[in-house]
Specification:
The complex is a heterotrimer of chains A (about 375), B (about 350) and C (about 250). Chain B is of the alpha/beta class. Chain B has eleven helices and 14 strands. Chain B is globular and about 70 Å long. Chain C is built from eight helices and eleven strands. The relative contact order of chain C is 0.16. Chains in contact: A-B, B-C.
């Protein structure tokens, strides 16, 4: 069915195209690293030194002591203290703060009364993630600080001890490196193959290939091989940069990770091929590939937003996307160190999707113009 | 002997219009066969069908003894096809392009090296072996493209307007390459918009609106020219020596066509009854001595073309036939009778 | 004599390679001037300099009375350019292409519509204004291309291999239009590889390796060289070039 010589000749030619077009090559090798650093900072969920302002109508020693404790915490940085905040919105704008902590007049006095007192925290909700962090942290911090100032021992009723598994430092690098693997491998494979085939159509060279004794399968497989390598190199690059720059270690078996990545690359290449059979121009191939891979992978695979919190319709879509399964596998291997026993199901689905798409692509590949 | 290509009632629609309306045609083996015709006459459609890139809607093509629709994978081994647009890899070198096409046709080892050397020499590209194809001049690109289509010793070569954008010197070289391939026994089918090239072919077909308007050897087409043809020139002393006759202007009385040709005008006089139907060449018409000026003709041309100075009787060339055929003033049957040795081989034919 | 194009020792070198080597070309107003040469002889480089797209290495030139080095902006509003690779948008209609080019050259709406009607009538495109450009035969696209280049009433039309891949009938019609434009006073500067049609030019130059090897009316050129056709002369000039570099 496939003549090895012809296969190699196609693959070698494709390799030459890749290495001659150094601009694309640079993009292919530099982009993953750049994306890692971009995501590394943009997705940084480890909040620190959130700027806050404190309203303190009666600056008695107790209130000041509580404020000092807030400032001393890692989470908050007190930008200033005002006597009255008549127009809180103005303060948010003016001082670029994320929260305003309002002590009532006579806070110290009321503390010791039976009814206690109230503290209001105004939060800038424009960044929901940050808002949630402030809300969750403010109450225990204020309560703890106040009790300490009062010298009251906290009654031990419930001792809540949380232990974070798999990503104990809650480092976001461990979170985005697998996600980027899924995005970049898919993009390189799907985008570059579809563009490479569309280019042959645009240049008219596809006609020359079709008029030769080459079989469609030889053209397809021959063109795919170089991109498998390229995608594999990118995979290695991501893991290396992840390890060196972000300290991400693979908890599980690296060979299993490599095997699963190859299955995923195969699936991604099938998507690229399918696109290339449907379009005639490089531009269309590029937009189709970006639309079909980038968006769904970033938004719906669980890379950024958890699948479980999506509406049902999107969850269904999410379960159709290869990246969803690959993400499950990569996170499983890198973070949890699990093996094939836990991952056979997503791996099977991924392989099935790949073969289905490839079969459709080969069927749709036209032997005439 | 079976012809290299036998086309029977071939029809094809393209973009909602009839590109080919049931044409039948034999291309002998071997032959340098030219396809000519106006834009949109169906030349490229026919080429694409012969190259097995497009399927016909109806009718059949047998090429090299095989049915094109049924056995196209096998036929592709024996066909070389050079599309209209330069279709090689511009980022690969001359040698790499040849190497690649050798590989996909399964030519390897010594056979490949020999064939590549031979073709580089044939195309005169030895010194450019390592140059990127994209950096070659127009003429050299076409020679490389021809070399690539020859890599697998095809028996049938299809060339779709191969010399467009190529300068006269390179074009002449290219055609001498085609001639030598023909001499080696290959059948070549070439479409061209240039009549000087068409006149180099063994045989021609003129397509018009998807049908065959005329076919036969160039000499036979020229011989069937039904008019007396005159060249009208301006005075050498005139400031503007180039004559023009707007296509919208009616020809002078008694003349069928007047059109510019190489700075002068060609005027076809429609009076000579003996040549009307394009039946056969009569000795009487061709034996007339060129250069004789008829007073009456001169007067009529003169009154229509004020700058006319000299009127010379000339032999028609292929381009004159092309104009006459397309104007509908000259007719030829789709099939000429099997040539009972013409009385006299008219000049300007094959060399 | 009023000149549309004049160059003196116009030269362009790329590194050590002399693409255009001291050429002196003068084209009178309303003249149809054929600018011939083999592939790579330097024609395109010369045209780019005349259009103000490329700065000469040395020498001078004026186009439509403006200096090609200092006043290239002014030149560009007074010339029209059409190349073999027609820069038409195949997915737009004929009328839309015309409107687009008219606006690009700064024609006002009223003037533009009148001018489009005028050009369409002149080129016989009236029936086709609503047709999608890509669906038209090559010869018609060529006419449309000429219409686009001529919409803003340029003094000079640069036509770079406008007739490649065009059948004899369309080619003849095209030259018909060229001559009518010339009669209206437009200067035509045209390149072609088709030696039969260049005899329709009023005057010709033949470039060999960056130099002008011959210039004159087709008749003069043939008479002086003893060649029967320009085609023959062209081949003769190209053939003798290794020996006759100084000629």
């Amino acid at each position: 069915m496939i003549a090895r010589g012809r296969l190699i000749s196609i693959a070698r030619k494709e390799m030459r195209h890749i290495f001659r077009d150094w601009q694309t090559l640079v993009v292919v090798l530099v982009m993953p690293v750049m994306m890692m650093f971009l995501y590394g900072y943009a997705l940084n969920a480890d909040a620190k030194e959130i700027p806050v302002l404190i309203e303190m109508p009666s600056p008695d020693p107790e209130t000041r002591a509580v404020a000092d404790k807030i400032d001393a915490s890692q989470l908050f940085a007190v930008r200033g203290v005002v006597a009255t905040a008549a127009d809180p919105a103005e303060l948010f704008k003016l001082h670029n703060i994320k929260a305003l902590i309002r002590f009532p007049p006579g806070f110290a006095r009321d503390l010791r009364r039976p009814g206690g007192t109230r503290v209001q925290v105004l939060i800038d909700g424009s960044d929901p993630n940050l808002g949630t962090i402030i809300r969750n942290a403010a109450e225990p911090l204020l309560l703890g600080a106040t009790l300490q100032v009062l010298g009251v021992e906290q009654p031990k009723v419930l001792d809540l001890r949380t232990l974070v598994l798999y990503n104990p430092e809650q480092s976001s690098a461990l979170f985005f490196v697998p996600g980027l693997m899924a995005v970049i491998l898919l993009m390189i494979s799907a985008l570059l193959t579809s563009v490479a085939i569309a280019r042959e159509k645009e240049l008219g060279t596809m006609g020359q290939l079709l008029v030769s004794p080459l079989r469609p399968l030889e053209i397809i497989v021959g063109k795919i091989i170089p991109y498998v390598f390229l995608a594999a190199v990118d995979g290695l690059l991501i893991m290396t940069v992840g390890r060196l720059a972000f300290g991400v270690k693979i908890a599980g078996n690296p060979w299993l990770l490599a095997t699963c990545s190859l299955v995923y690359i195969f699936t991604a290449l099938s998507i690229g091929l399918l696109i290339s059979t449907l379009v005639k121009r490089q531009q269309h191939a590029m937009f189709a590939a970006l639309g079909a891979t980038m968006m769904p992978t970033v938004l719906l695979s669980g890379f950024i937003f958890p699948v479980a919190s999506m509406p049902l319709q999107l969850q269904i879509v999410s379960h159709l996307i290869p990246a969803t399964y690959f993400l499950e596998i990569v996170r499983g291997i890198i973070l949890k160190g699990v093996g094939i026993h836990e991952l056979w199901r997503p791996l099977l689905i991924l392989s099935f999707e790949g073969m289905l798409l490839m079969a459709i692509a080969i069927r749709k590949f036209k032997v005439k113009l | 002997m079976e012809p290299a290509v036998r086309i029977a009632s071939l029809a094809k629609d393209h973009a909602g219009e009839r590109a080919l309306r049931g044409i039948s045609l034999d291309i002998p083996d071997p032959c340098l066969f030219g396809i000519i015709g106006a834009d949109g006459a169906g030349k490229s459609t026919l080429m694409n069908i012969l190259a097995t890139l497009t399927d016909a809607d109806s009718g059949s093509v047998r090429a090299l003894g095989r049915d094109l629709a049924e056995e196209f994978p096998a036929i592709r081994k024996d066909i070389g096809y050079m599309p209209q647009r330069f279709s090689l890899y511009q980022d690969l070198s001359v040698g790499e392009n040849l190497d690649f096409f050798a590989d996909i046709f399964g030519i390897s080892g010594k056979a490949k090296a020999d064939r590549m050397d031979h073709l580089l020499a044939f195309a005169g590209l030895q010194t450019f072996k390592n140059r990127r194809a994209g950096l070659l001049s127009g003429g050299m690109k076409q020679k490389l493209a021809l070399a690539c289509t020859l890599i697998h010793h095809p028996k049938l070569l299809l060339l779709d307007e191969p010399t467009v954008g190529v300068d006269p010197v390179a074009r002449r070289d290219f055609w001498s390459m085609l001639k030598s391939l023909r001499a080696d026994g290959i059948t070549l089918v070439v479409s061209t918009p240039y009549m000087d090239e068409a006149s180099l072919c063994d045989s021609l077909v003129l397509l018009h609106e998807g049908g065959i308007l005329a076919q036969g050897p160039p000499a036979q087409l020229v011989a069937a020219y039904p008019f007396d043809l005159f060249r009208v020139e301006a005075s050498p002393e005139a400031r503007v020596t180039t004559l023009n006759y707007p296509g919208s202007q009616e020809p002078p009385p008694g003349f069928a066509l007047v059109y510019p040709s190489g700075g002068s005008l060609h005027a076809a006089e429609s009076l000579t009854a003996s040549r009307r139907d394009g039946a056969a060449v009569t000795a009487e018409a061709t034996s007339e001595i060129p250069g004789v000026q008829s007073e009456d003709r001169f007067r009529r041309l003169r009154s229509a073309i004020p700058q006319a100075h000299t009127v010379t009787r000339i032999e028609p060339a292929l381009e004159d036939c092309f104009f006459a055929l397309l104007s509908g003033r000259m007719r030829m049957g789709p099939k000429l009778p099997p040539d009972p040795a013409p009385a006299e081989a008219p000049p300007g034919g094959e060399s | 004599m009023e000149y549309s194009i004049r160059t003196e020792h116009l030269t362009k070198s790329f590194g050590s390679f002399l693409a255009v080597d001291h050429i002196d070309v003068s084209v009178a107003k309303g003249e149809v001037f054929g600018f011939l040469g083999a592939n790579g002889a330097g024609k395109t480089t010369a045209i780019r300099m005349l259009c103000g797209l490329l700065a000469p290495t040395s020498g001078r030139g004026t186009v439509a009375g403006f200096d090609i080095i200092r006043e290239s902006e002014k030149i560009r509003t007074r010339i029209g350019y059409m190349s073999q690779k027609f820069s038409l948008y195949p997915d737009l209609s004929v009328g839309q292409n015309l409107r687009l080019y008219g606006r690009l050259y700064g024609l006002g709406s009223k003037d533009l519509e009148a001018r489009i009607r005028e050009m369409a009538a002149f080129l016989g495109l009236e029936e086709l204004l609503k047709r999608v450009t890509g669906s038209l035969p090559w010869g018609w696209q060529q006419r449309l291309s000429l219409a686009c280049a001529n919409l803003h009433r340029p003094e000079i039309l640069f036509l770079d291999e406008p007739t490649g891949s065009v059948d004899p009938v369309s080619r003849r019609n095209f030259w018909d239009l060229i001559h009518r434009l010339s009669e209206q006073g437009t200067t035509i500067f045209i390149t072609s590889h088709y030696m039969d049609e260049v005899e329709y030019c009023h005057r010709l130059s033949i470039m060999i390796d960056g130099r002008v090897a011959a210039m004159g009316t087709p008749r003069e050129l043939k008479r002086d060289s003893g060649c029967a056709t320009i085609h023959e002369l062209f081949l003769k000039l190209v053939e003798k070039k290794p020996a006759g570099a100084a000629a």
